[in-house]
Design a protein that fits this description.
single chain; 89 residues; mainly alpha; 3 helices; globular
Length: 89
Amino acid sequence: MSLAFAVGYFLSFVFNYLMSAYFTFKKKTTKRNGMGFIIAHCINFMLQVSLLNFFVWLGIHKALAPIPAYAISIPVNFIIVRFVFNKVK
């Protein structure tokens, strides 16, 4: 089960990178923007975990805490990824 999850996550990550490059930002894939994409998603993961724990700490029910966490982290991730594709040469 864990192997299937890991393979699925990896494939979705690669697909996300390719689609972000070609369709969202209309850029070619490079090692540099690939590394930036990986770093952006690592930052996003840490932000999501931190925000989730923060909202639970504030007293928001754990089933509802992901909503504000995603509401903040998804736009932040888009901004970071946009920077990677538009500024990193």
